[in-house]
Amino acid sequence: MIHELPNLVGRIEAVLFVAEAPVSLPLLAQLLAVPEGVVEEGVALLNARLADQSAVMVLRIAGGYQLSTRPEYAELVERFLKPQHQRLSRSLLEVLAIVAYRQPVTQSEVETVRAVQSDYGIRVLVERGLIKEVGRKESPGRPILYGTTQQFLHQLNLDNLAELPDVEGRDFSQLELDIS
Question: Model-level pTM greater than 0.85?
Answer without folding.
Answer: no
